[in-house]
Structure formats: C-alpha cells, structure tokens
Design brief:
The complex is a heterodimer of chains A (about 425) and B (about 1150). Chain A is α/β, with parallel strands linked by helices. Helices cover about 35% and strands about 20% of the residues of chain A. A six-stranded mixed beta sheet of chain A has the order 4-3-2-1-11-12, with helices on one face. Chain A has a six-stranded mixed beta sheet with strand order 5-6-7-8-10-9. In chain A, strands 13, 14, 15 and 16 form a four-stranded parallel beta sheet that branches. In chain A, helix 2 (about 35-50) runs parallel beside helix 3 (about 70-85), helix 6 (about 265-280) packs across helix 7 and helix 8 runs antiparallel to helix 10 (about 390-415). By secondary structure, chain B is α/β, with parallel strands linked by helices. Classes of the chains: A alpha/beta (about 425), B alpha/beta (about 1150).
Chain lengths: ~425, ~1150
C-alpha cells in the first residue's frame, strides 16, 4: 500500500495581490484574497487524492501579518484534513518565526509542528517505514546551514527532510539557512521537502530535491503557473513526483510585437489578438496580464501620448473575454529615426536628447518638484523616489528623459492634427 | 524643390486638368496665384498636391466623380536643375510610378521632400485663415515667451501653448504643492478610511492571547463549582431516603398486628365479592316485578267484560253512510223553498205589466219576441238616417255658391272674351336690349379713356427736355443696356484707379520727404576722420610707454587724459560710421521711392485717358435734345423712364378703342326697340331716346299680362259649377234608397201606423227586449223549485227504511235520524275498547312467565356460594365473604411496604434496611435536609453565573472568526497604494518633461533669435505699415518676452496687442520662420489659402510684398477667389503669375 503526501510551502496566507487590475472591483471580488482560495484548493486536493499527509515547508503567512483571522482560517482548514484522517507536518520559515500569531495557534491533534531542534516522526503503512525529519526557524534569520543539525536518516525507512532554505543563494533572496544542492543530494535522504523560494524547482535523482514554489503568485514578479507537489512512495520505496496546479489567478507578461504595424487600428488589433491567444493558451481560471509592447514602430510617439487610451482598449477586450484582466501596459518599443531631421521639432528633440548632463537650473527645479511630492506621499510610498541621493538623482534623470519624450509626443500629435 | 506642373488627371471634379507653373524664373520671385471663384476647386487642388506627394488616403472624399480605382494625379517636379515626372494612383502599394508605369519606391518621394512628412508639410509650409487665427491665440497662450513663439512660428504648431497648458493642468489636478485637494489628496483620504476600517475589524495576536486566557480561567472556575455542587446533592439524596423510610417501618408493624386478629378462611375466588352483591339485588327486584304483572292481568279481564256489544247496528253502517250523503240537500230544500216561490211570483207580475204596455195583454210572450237579425237591421237604419240627410243639404248649398261665382266673373269680363295682339316679339327685344344697359356702359368707358390720356401726357412730360409724341418716342434709336453698363463700370474703375494712383504717389512723396528730413537731421553729427583717430591712438600709446616707465601721478594723469580722448574719438568715429551707413540706406530708399512715384503718376494719367474715351462714346449715342454731358447713370435712368412712357401710350390707345365700341352698341339698341314697338302696333316718336322707348314697351307688356289672368279665372269657375251639380244629384238618390229600406224593415213590428218614425220604433224595440229577459228568469226559477221538492222526499224515504230495519218506532224524520246516529256511535266505541284490552292481556301474560324463569336461576347460584363457604343461608354468606376480603388486602399492603423500604434504603433485605434506620429520628433528618437544599440552591446560582462568564469568553474568541474581511481590506489598501504610485510617476513625468521642453525651447530661442528677430521685426513693420517700428526681446523674470515697438518708440507686450495686430505679428513671425527653415534645408512649395480676406487693400499689398520676398527663396503659391487681390499682387510684384482655375 503506497504512502502519499502533498508538499507545499510559502502559503503567505492573506498576503495581498499587487496589481492595478484590482481597481476593477469585479476582479477584486473574484480573485481578491487568492492566497486563501489557493490553500483551499490544496486542502481539496489532499481530500480528493486521499493522501496520508500534507507537508508545509515554512512561511504560512507574511511576517508582518498580525491578524488572528488569518490564523483561524489556517486552523479551520487544517481541521478539514484532521476530520478526514490526514496528518499535517509543518516547519516554521523565516516569516513564521517573525510572526506574532504563530504563538497563538491552536492546531488539531493530527498536526505536527517541528521545533527548532531536529525532530523525527516515524510512520508505518503496510510494509513501508516512513521517517519525516524537520527543523523550524527559531528566529527570522538563519545565516548558517541547518543541514548538519538534522538527525541521521533512519535505516530501512524512507527518509523525508523538511527544510526552509534559500539553497545556495537564489537571486533576489538574502541567505536563509543556505546549503548546497549537492550536499542535500548526498545526505542519504530520499526526498527533501524545501520551502522559501517562490519559483518551482525539482531536482530529480536518487534523492528528489523539490522547491514547490508559492501556490498563488501575488504580482507580476511572481508570474507563471503555480503548483504544489504530489508525491507517491510505492511499496518498494520508490518515489514518483508530480506537480499539480493550484493558482486561482495567473500573472503573466505578454509580449506584443508591433513591428511593421503602421496605424493605430493595427496596434489595437495586435494587442487584442495577443490577449485572446493568451486566454486560449493558459488554463488558469483568471489571467492577470501585463502586455509588453515591443518592436520598431513609427507610432512610438502616439504610444507615448495615448498609452492610456490603448490601456482602455485592452480593458474593453479583456472585459469581453470575461476572465482576463490587464495589470498595466508596458511600452518598450523603439522608434524609426525621424526622417525629417532638419525641422524645428527634430531640433527640439535633439536638444533634449543632448541633455545628458542637464543644467543646474533644471535639476534644481526638478528636485524641488520631487521633494514637494515626496513630502505629500503616504508613508508606505516615500521610498518610491529613492532612499539615497544617488538613486534619487538616477530616478530624476530618467523621469526628465521619459517626461520630455512624452511631452514631445504631445507636440508631435499637434502637428499630426494640424 | 518646386512644382513645375500639377496634373489633376482624374481627381475630385477634375478630369485631365493641368496647372503649369513654368520653369524657375531666372530672376525675381517664384510667385504664383491660383485664382478661381468659389467651388472652382482650389482646395481640391491643394489636396491633390499633398495626395500626390504622400499618397491618396484610404478614405479619400475625392471619389465623387472618378471612383477610387480610376483616381490619378501627376506632376513635374523640379529638384535643383533636374525635373522628375511622377504619377500617383490610389491603392495599397506601388501607387507612385514614372510616366512609363514603372513603380517608384516611396523613398524617392521622401528624398525629394527631405523627410518632411504630410503633417509637417501642412504645419510648416501651408497657411490658412484658421491657422492664422490659432496663431494669434497662441501668442496669448505663450504669454509672449520668446522661445515658444519662435518655435511656434517656424514649426507651425500654433496650439503648442495650449498643449503645454493642458499637460500642466493635468499634473496640477493630481498634486499642487500647498494645495489640499486633487487626485493625490483624494487617494490619501481613501487610504486613511481603509486603515480605519482595518483597525475596527481586526483582532491582533496580543489581543487574542488576552481573550484566550480569560476563557481558560472561566472554564477552571466553572469546573470547581460543579464538583462542589455534586457533593451536596449526593448527601441530600441520602437524607431524603432515610426521612422517607422511617414512617414506612412504623406502618408495617401495625399491619402485622391487624392480620393476627382475623380468622382463617378460604380465599374469596376472583369476582365473587362483586357477583354476590349483584345476585342479592337481582333476587329482590325480580320478585317485585312479578307481583305487578299478575295484578295487571286481573284488571284487563274485568275491562273486556264491561264493554258494549251491538252487532245489528254495526251491520247497517253502509246504509247509514248513504243516508248521510242525502242529508245536506234535504237541509237546503227545507231552508230555501219558501223564498224561491215568492221570487217566482214577482217575475210573473213584471211580465204581465210589459204585455200591457205593448197592448198585447194575455198574449204568450214567446209569440212577441223578435228574432235578433230583425232588431239589428232596424238599429243600423236608424243610425244611417241622420248622415244621409246632412249630405244632401251640403250638396245643395255648394251648387248654389258655384253658380253665383261664375255669374260674377262673366260680368267682369263684360262678355268680351276676344283675343289680344301678340306681344312675344316685343318682350324678347326689350329683354335683350335692356339687359346690357348700353347707356351706363358708354358713360364708364368714356371716363377710362380720359384717365389714360392724362397718364400718357404726364409720362411724355417726364422725358423733357426731349419733346415729341408716342410715335416719335417709339421710333428713337438708342444703345443697348449692357453697353451703357459697360461704360459705367469702366468709368468707375478708371476713377478708382486714378484716385489710388494719386494717393500712392502722395504717400511715396511723403515718405521721401520724411527720409530727406531724417538725413538732414543726421548730417548735424560731428565729423571725425580716421587720421584724427590714428593720431590720438599713437599719442595714447606713447604716453602709456612713458607712464609705464615712470609710474607716477603725473604720467598717470597724462595717460588718463589721452585714454579719455581716445575713447571719445573712437566713439565719435563709430557714430559717424553708423550715420554714414544710415545715409547710404536712406539714399537708396529715396531712389526707389522716386521710381515708385513716377509709376503712380503714370497710372493716374492712364486712368484719366480711359475716362475721356468713355465720355466721347457716350455723347455720340444720346438722343436729340438731351444734354451732351449726360452720365451713363443718367442715360440709364432716362431709358428706364422712356420704357414707362411707351407703356402709357399703349394704354391710352386701348381705352380710345373701347369708347368707339360702346357708342355703336347704344345706337343699335335704340333701333331694335323702336322696331319691336311698331310690330306690336304701338306708335313710336321718331327721335324718342332709348330710355323713353324702354318705358313705353314696359307699360304695353304689363297691361297684356292683367287681362290674361281674368280669362283664366272665369274658365276655372265654369268647370267647378258642373262638378257641384253632379254631387247634389248623387245625394238625393242616397236619401230615396234609405226610405225604401226603412219601410220594409218596420213591417213585422206590432204597430198601427204604416210608416212609423224613427223615435217610435226605438221605444217599441226597448219594451220587447225587457219582456224577453223577464220571461227567461221565470223559466229558471220554476226549474229550481221542482228539484228542491224531490231532494226532501228522497231523504225522508231513506230514514224511514233504516228505522224499519232496526225496529225503531216511527216519527219525525229528523228525530228518527238523531236516534239512529246515537245508537251507531255507542256500538262502534264498545267494539274498539274490547279489542285493545284483549291485546294488552296477551303481552302481560308473556312477561310474567319470563320473570318467573329468572328468579329460579338467581336462587340456584346463591345456593352454590353457600355450599363453598359451608353456610346455610345468604345472610351469613355475606358476613363470611367480607372477612375473607379484608385479610387479603392487609397482606398485600404489608408486602408493598417491605418492598418500598428496601428500595428507599438501597438494600436487598428488609432486615438490613431496618437495622440501618435503627437509632435515626425524623426531626433531626428534616433539619439536615433543609440545610442541604439551601446550600445546593446557592451553588446552582454560582454555577449559572460562571457558565455565563465562560460563554461570553468563548463568544469573544468565536467573534474573531476566520473570515477574509480584513485581508480584503488590506488588498484594497495595497491597490490604492499602487494607484498612487502610478499616478505620482505620471505626474512627475509631466512636470519634469515640461521643465525639459521649456529648457530646450530656450536653447531654440538662443540659436535662432538673431536672424529670426531681425526678419520678423522687418516683416512686422512692413505689415503694420509703419505703425510699429519693429520687435525686441525684453527680459521678464527668468525668461525673455517679445515686445512690439510702436512708431513712437513705446514698447508693448505681445499680449496687450489688439487681436488684429496679433494676427499680423503671427504672420510676421511665420515669414521669419519660413526664411529660417529655408536657410536650414531645401524648401518645398509654400501654399497660402486666401489668408488676406479680412485685410484692407493696403495691408494686403504689404503682405503680398512679404510673400513675394518669400518667393525669392522658394516657390510660393497663393490661392484666392478675389480678383482684386490678383490685381494688387500684380501691382506689388509684376513677376507674379496668375493661373485661372475653372
């Protein structure tokens, strides 16, 4: 009789989705709080597949999360498993260690939470011996590898290790209990149930090392399909590993090449075609897309001026489809050089392009505008204009160039309307 | 690049239309005017030029004549010294070809245009009213900013200022430093509201811990109180059981004693006690009821014996019933007979009286009664008699009246019934003649003729000094109206041309005088030569050497003096040079002005000559008598008056013809009437006027009409008399017929006279009818009396027969009948009573038998009971059964008590229970029980309170819930933050973008100001005709603004200029902009579309001068529908070429 379990991590329950698409209250209604919906799907999966256990490798919720409603939702969900006789094994990750609601959790008896000291839980099913090892984060940071602190694998049993780790340093992540993949593979364990990194990774072999990734992406930075891992340990001890989709809504960048399109209607058509294609190709219930306009087009000035109108067009198309939503439009096109290089407008554009080191008077005026705005912004957004003088200057210079291009686009529009 | 020829092959309304602009002029401006009236296709031409260059748009509106597939344009384009021929068709690709049909790549055209796209062409190289207007407004919106105005002028983007303002406003709508409203403020409010909601709805971990602790404490307190209450309740139950068991033991002892006192007896079988009581009661009751039945049987026997029995009477029942039926008729006859007999006697007396009145005493009335038809025919004749007599009288009277009327009419006609003369002809003639009233008609026509003659005379008088009659007037030979109109126009144009030329000459002379005066004023400046300057400079240098060597105060003073002199000389030299330059310019201008003046004067002379020629032509065609100096306008007026006079002459001629006709009609009417009168036999006066003849005819005709009416009345009266005579004869015959019928009808009557009158016969008829009635009444009465006597006899016979059968003594019928009825009643009643008593007797005997049987059964069962208990009578039986039952009840009560005690004390044996209760007493137990109950009540209250506390604590925890309300609020908050971030970035892009563009505009200003300002300044001076001397830049804050310098030297901000002057300023700037662009690149044809419509001629002329100036740099095409503008342009720039369109 095989032993089966579902492995997930980084639930980040009640962590909000970040997208301007949620300004649409209809979308906010259907995918709002998708982290809960995704977790509910995981529980449903465990029940449908009648697995023996659910393994959660850390980060149940955000560290700053203090609402007991979140904790209560977690326990209510785990009680459903308890009622069905399915065990739950949990280790705490960096966020859980930070969280104050961790201490208040009252979990059902079928839930095992590993402590900061290495623990082993042994289970027998038919002829199979299963040993589940785990260590929790006691503090938000764990600069040292935790691998050496695990107990030795139990002889004759299938050994499963649960660990929250940044592995050997993933891009964009501080080191959290770093350890090398090779060391894990050489540890004598049969399956490493990891957590922490939000993108899925599976390293098969004699020892499977699996990072399941976050089950529901929260912004465009967590784009792509999201899943959990369903593991079956066969009677003779061999493991089969499969991914199961969990996300309610999928974030995705969508490249829309505009090369060779000469008029505005063509751009609108290309964009709406790309949206429809995306809806056909991707299976998730809801898609939150960020179309990225690329390619070389003589209508770059029009894109700069009327990106808002194009966004409206995209939203209309999306509304027609029903389950597709626009995060925002990104414009990354390049322009043909203006054929008229002698005209006054071209001369003005050259003047601006030549402003690589703008005169002090302009910089002072720009700084004053930015400083006044920074003071008026809410606390949460003060950092958007840079935290140190060098960053601030870089942001300012970029805005000067982008802004000038946009203003010139409006002037170009006047010529076209004349 | 320039346009040499434009082919509108199939485009818009044009088919195979070509405009040839010719080769580049070797010298002078390349200036063209396309002239055409409205709708001639100027706009289409301009559109065609752009479509040729850039392709025909997909949705072109130029397909109304030639469909899309057929549209074609062509052009010959000069590029430097080469010429390129191209053809443009409509389509998707390959629409540009050479004449051989080879497709040319669009890049060829791009190369020709130097990269200018269509929008750029329209902005920079074309100008129309609308652009000019927007340009004027842009000067306001730029607030005079020099850089922006120069850029606007050369790029043609007139709405740039508004666009920049729009972006500024968009940014300000989001955020304004120091402002409290706007997009950002709104979003921040939303954020604060969300934070408040989150705080209100969420429960944090720390608060939750407090809640959990409170719940645990409440649970512990509740558990302790529950245990305490359980102990109290256990003790209370024990005490209550002991308290209850103690009295039971006492009662058990008493029952044991009672049992011992009772004798030993067999047990009473089940149900016997009840049955014994029933048997005793049954026995008594049955005996009593039997006794009653026996007594009733005896009394019934006695009743049967006493009842009457009369069978003989009963046998006559049927005969009695028959006699009863006759009894009522008998009674009626006895009562009514005497009255009926008296009535019959009265009727007989009445019959006798009637017979006496008819004179037939003693006769049988039956022989006197008349049959009904005889009476009816007599009555009918009596009714008719009065009608027939009256009709005869009326007919007689009417005949007499008719005869009298005829006699009267015959007398009035005097016996003369002869014929009158025939007047039909006269009547017809009079009607025809008098209907038209020829006299009145003649009078009216005469008046009209006089009026027409007066009008004609007046019209001819208005033509003075020309004199003559209508015929002479009609015969005059005069020039055609268009010819006179042509003279008038030529004369007016020549006059205007002369005035304009003279005014221009005067203006040029004035300017020359002004320049001369200026030159003379400038001559006054001092004169310094170059030699003087060199000398002073040499002295300064030598003194510097001395001072440098000595470096003392003296040498310093000497050097300073030399230095100052050198400065002065240098300055004077510079002034002199400037003055010389000015003088040379002024002289050149004077020479040019002299040429202009001569040209203007020659133009004035030519105009005067044209006017003289026209006047000569006019004098030649004037009619005799008119002033030879008559102007074309006066001649046109005289010719219009002549036309009117000719109409009036024709009017008088028609009136004269009408008058002659009327006179003729009156004479012929008089002749006709006279002839008619004569034909009717009337004598007619030879010269009698028409009116007299008409009256005579009317009198004759009226007389004839009166006589004819009388004759007609006499004839009618004769006919009437004959009709009346016939009617009278008919009435007399009717009367005779009635008399004959009357005679016949009266024959059967019992009367003496032969022919009785109607009244007598009426009376006899009434008496005969009364006799008939009385005779019938008597007959009916005799019949009824007979029937009554028969009834009385029949009843008496029946009663006598019955009495005989029953052997009753004879007597009066009524008394015998009463005795019979009494005997019959007694016999019937006796029979009924006997039968009823017999029936009751049988039933009573049956009941008595049944009661005897039941009594025997009861006694047998009692004997059985006695045998069981061994007693001999039923009295002792009752005693024994009662004692046995008592014993049985006591034993049962004893067993129940023992069971209760064991149960209450929780033991199996009674002995154990009794031992446990040993030594306890009830008052002590009662006291303990009360104490325990009070304690338990207190504990129960405490428990309730603690339970409520626990529920509340648990409720607070439950209320936290696992719902996602707070999570959703966080998500909403996150979205608002993202929105603020996105809008803040857009805000910064706009604000910083504007800063960058403004800076770039300053750069543009700096690199173009010198050339553009000079040119714009000149153009502005020209176009304002010297009202403004030029333009200048003036610093204002951190920027520079444009000011206009007026002729008086005062400066005026651009925004303070009038609207018209702002247009001119914009035009001046555009001219400068064109020259600036022309300096930087190859030009393309500049197209101006009727921009001078609102300009007066002088300003238009100056503007053409500027356009001609532009045409010196590149091709300029001006489109207009004003011919006078063509003339002005030709005057200002004789080299201009005018191309007519349409």
């Amino acid at each position: 009789m095989p032993y089966r379990f579902v492995h997930t991590a980084d639930l980040h329950l009640d962590s909000p989705l970040k997208s301007l698409a949620l300004r649409d209250s209809a979308l906010a209604e259907v995918i709002g709080n998708a982290s809960r919906a995704a977790f509910a799907r995981i529980i449903d999966l465990c029940l449908e597949e009648a697995v023996d256990a659910l393994l959660i490798a850390g980060d149940l919720y955000d560290g700053a999360q203090t609402s007991m409603k979140t904790a209560r939702f977690l326990t209510q969900s785990l009680r459903r498993l308890d009622a069905a006789g399915i065990e739950t094994f949990i280790i705490r990750g960096n966020h859980d260690a930070e969280s104050r609601i961790t201490a208040q959790l009252l979990l059902p008896a079928s839930v095992t939470v590993f402590g900061a000291q290495a623990g082993v839980e042994r289970r027998a099913k038919g002829a199979l011996e299963i040993a589940i090892h785990g260590i929790s984060f006691a503090r938000p940071h764990a600069p040292e590898s935790l691998l050496g602190r695990f107990k030795a694998p139990v002889p004759g049993a299938v050994n499963i290790g649960m660990m929250h780790t940044s592995l050997d340093g993933a891009a964009g992540h501080d080191p959290y209990a770093p350890c090398r993949l090779a060391d894990l593979q050489a540890s004598g364990f049969d399956y490493w149930a990891l957590g922490h990194i939000h993108a899925r990774a599976h390293h098969p072999g004699a020892c499977h090392v699996v990072m399941p990734g976050i089950p529901q992406g929260r912004d465009i930075g967590e784009a792509g399909g999201k899943s959990v891992t369903l593991v079956t340990v066969a009677d003779e001890g061999t493991l089969s590993v499969e991914a199961r989709a969990t996300a309610v809504a999928r974030f995705e960048r969508l490249e829309v090449p505009l090369d060779g399109i000469a008029d505005w209607a063509g751009i609108v058509a290309a964009l709406s075609g790309a949206l429809r294609a995306a809806r056909r190709d991707l299976a998730e219930d809801h898609l939150v897309l960020r179309p990225v306009l690329t390619g070389r087009t003589p209508l770059l000035w029009r894109l700069r001026r009327d990106l808002g109108l194009l966004l409206d067009e995209a939203r209309v198309t999306a509304e027609g489809i029903g389950t597709l939503w626009i995060d925002k439009l990104e414009q990354a096109c390049t322009d043909d050089a203006r054929p008229d290089t002698a005209g006054p407008l071209a001369e003005l554009a050259r003047q601006i392009a030549g402003m690589t080191t703008p005169p002090a008077a302009i910089l002072a005026e720009a700084d004053a505008v930015m400083e006044a705005l920074a003071k008026a912004l809410p606390k949460d957004l003060r950092g958007m204009l840079g935290d140190d003088p060098a960053t601030q200057a870089a942001i300012r210079d970029a805005l000067l160039q982008e802004g000038a291009a946009e203003v010139l686009a409006h002037l170009h529009g006047l010529e076209d309307d004349a | 690049m320039r346009l040499r020829r434009l082919d509108l092959t199939r485009y818009g309304k044009f088919t195979d239309r070509s405009l040839d602009f010719g080769a580049t002029p070797a010298q002078g401006p390349d200036f063209h005017i396309i002239y055409g009236p409205n709708e001639a296709g100027k706009s289409t031409t301009m559109q065609g030029w752009l479509d040729l260059l850039y392709g025909i748009p997909t949705q072109s509106r130029m397909d109304f004549l030639h469909p899309y597939g057929a549209m074609q344009l062509g052009a010959l384009i000069d590029i430097g010294t080469e010429a390129v021929e191209v053809i443009r068709t409509k389509g998707r690709t390959g629409t540009l070809t050479d004449p051989a049909g080879n497709v040319l790549p669009e890049a060829v055209m791009q190369g020709i245009l130097g990269g200018i796209d269509r929008a750029g062409y329209e902005a920079m190289f074309s100008l129309d009213d609308e652009t000019l207007e927007k340009g004027g407004e842009s000067i306001l919106s730029s607030q005079g900013d020099l850089g922006q105005m120069l850029f606007t002028a050369s790029s043609g983007l007139a709405e740039m200022g508004q666009a920049l303002d729009g972006l500024r406003n968009t940014a300000a709508a989001f955020f304004k430093p120091g402002g409290r409203s706007g997009g950002l403020a709104d979003l921040k409010k939303t954020l604060a509201a969300l934070d408040e909601q989150i705080a209100a709805q969420d429960t944090g971990a720390r608060d939750f811990a407090v809640l959990a602790q409170a719940r645990d404490q409440a649970q512990a307190a509740l558990d302790a109180a529950q245990a305490e209450q359980d102990d109290t309740l256990a003790r209370l139950h024990l005490v209550e059981r002991q308290f209850a068991a103690l009295p039971l033991v006492t009662r058990l002892t008493l029952i044991e004693t009672d049992l011992g006192a009772l004798p030993e007896l067999p047990p009473v079988p089940q149900g016997w006690a009840a049955e014994l009581a029933d048997l005793a009661r049954e026995q008594g009751q049955t005996a009593v009821r039997l006794e009653g039945q026996v007594a009733q049987i005896d009394s019934l026997h006695a009743e049967i014996k006493a009842a009457t029995d009369d069978p003989a009477m009963l046998a006559q029942d049927a005969a009695m019933t028959e006699a009863e039926a006759l009894k009522s008729d008998y009674d009626g006859a006895v009562r009514d007979l005497p009255a009926r007999r008296a009535e019959a006697d009265q009727v007989q007396a009445r019959i006798d009286d009637l017979l006496r009145q008819l004179g037939s005493e003693g006769r049988d009335p039956a022989g006197l009664v008349l049959p009904a038809p005889v009476v009816a025919s007599l009555r009918a004749l009596m009714e008719r008699q009065s009608g027939v007599a009256a009709a005869l009288e009326t007919a007689r009277q009417e005949e007499a009246a008719a005869a009298e009327r005829l006699a009267d009419l015959t007398a009035r006609l005097g016996g003369d019934g002869g014929a009158a003369p025939d007047l039909a002809l006269l009547a017809q003639v009079a009607q025809d003649v008098l209907r038209g009233d020829p006299d009145a008609d003649l009078e009216r026509v005469r008046g009209l003729e006089a009026t027409a003659r007066d009008r004609m005379d007046a019209a001819l008088a208005r033509l003075l000094p020309w004199r003559g009659d209508g015929a002479a007037l009609a015969a005059l030979s005069l020039p055609e109206a268009p010819q006179v109109q042509g003279w008038r126009q030529t004369l007016a144009e020549a006059q205007q041309a002369q005035a304009r030329a003279l005014a221009d000459a005067a203006r040029v002379t004035d300017e020359a005088a002004r320049i001369t005066a200026q030159m003379q004023a400038e001559v006054a400046a001092g004169q310094v030569t170059l030699e003087d300057a060199a000398r002073v400079r040499a002295e300064r240098e030598s003194l510097w050497s001395v001072h440098r060597a000595a470096l003392n105060a003296e040498t310093a003073a000497a050097f300073e003096a030399a230095l100052r002199q050198d400065d002065q000389v240098t300055a004077a030299l510079a002034r002199a040079q400037t003055a010389a330059l000015h003088r040379a310019e002024a002289e050149a201008r004077l020479a040019a002005l002299e040429i202009d003046r001569a040209r203007h004067e020659a133009e004035a002379a030519a105009a005067a000559a044209r006017m003289a020629a026209v006047r000569d032509d006019l004098a030649r065609v004037l009619p005799e008598g008119l002033d030879p100096a008559t102007s074309p306008e006066a001649l046109e007026a005289w010719m219009r008056r002549r036309e009117a006079a000719l109409e009036d002459v024709a009017g008088w001629q028609a009136a004269a013809r009408d008058l002659a006709g009327a006179t003729r009609r009156q004479a012929s009417a008089r002749d006709a009437l006279a002839a008619g009168l004569r034909a009717a036999g009337q004598s007619v006066e030879a010269d009698a006027p028409l009116a007299v003849l008409a009256a005579q005819a009317r009198v004759v005709l009226e007389r004839a009409q009166g006589r004819a009416a009388l004759v007609e009345a006499r004839d009618t009266a004769a006919v009437d008399l004959r009709r009346r005579q016939a009617a009278q004869a008919r009435a007399a015959a009717d009367m005779q017929g009635w008399r004959d019928a009357w005679q016949a009808a009266c024959a059967p009557l019992p009367l003496a006279a032969d022919s009785p009158d109607v009244a007598t016969v009426g009376e006899v008829l009434d008496l005969l009818q009364g006799l008939e009635q009385a005779w019938r009444d008597l007959d009916k009465l005799s019949d009824r009396i007979g029937k009554m006597q028969a009834n009385r006899a029949a009843f008496a016979a029946a009663v006598a027969a019955l009495a005989e059968r029953l052997a009753l003594p004879e007597g009066d019928t009524s008394e015998v009948w009463a005795a019979l009825r009494a005997r019959q009643r007694a016999a019937t009643e006796g029979q009924a009573r006997r039968l009823a008593a017999q029936e009751k007797l049988t039933a009573a005997e049956d009941k008595a038998q049944a009661l005897r049987g039941r009594l025997a059964e009861t006694e047998a069962r009692l004997a059985e009971f006695c045998a069981y208990f061994g007693c001999d009578d039923s009295a002792s039986l009752h005693q024994v059964v009662m004692q046995a039952g008592q014993r049985q009840d006591l034993a049962a009560e004893r067993d129940r008590l023992a069971r209760d005690i064991c149960e209450g004390m929780g033991t199996d044996s009674l002995t154990e229970a009794v031992a446990a209760l040993e030594g306890l007493d009830r008052p002590q137990l009662a006291a303990e029980r009360d104490g325990l109950i009070a304690a338990q009540q207190r504990q129960a209250q405490a428990l309730q309170r603690l339970y409520a506390d626990l529920s509340q604590a648990q409720g607070r925890i439950e209320a936290v819930g696992g719902d996602d309300a707070v999570a959703r609020l966080h998500e909403e908050r996150q979205t608002v933050l993202l929105q603020i971030e996105a809008e803040a970035r857009a805000f910064l892009r706009h604000r910083l973008g504007i800063v960058a563009v403004e800076h770039a505009l300053q750069g543009y200003r700096d690199s173009h100001r010198s050339a553009m300002m000079q040119r714009a300044s000149e153009a502005f001076r020209t176009i304002t005709r010297g009202d403004y001397s030029g333009l200048a830049a003036q610093p204002e804050g951190e920027r520079e603004v444009l000011v206009a310098i007026s002729a008086t030297g005062a400066s005026k901000l651009a925004r303070d200029l009038s609207k018209g002057t702002r247009f001119q300023l914009y035009l001046a700037l555009r001219v400068a902009g064109y020259h600036e662009i022309a300096g930087a690149r190859a030009t393309v044809p500049f197209i101006a579309d009727d921009i001078l419509e609102t300009f007066d001629d002088d300003r238009a002329a100056e503007t053409f001068a500027l356009l001609a100036d532009m045409a010196g740099v590149g091709q300029v095409i001006y489109l207009t529908h004003h011919r006078h503008l063509c003339e002005i342009a030709q005057r200002i720039c004789p080299a201009v070429r005018v191309h007519a369109l349409g």
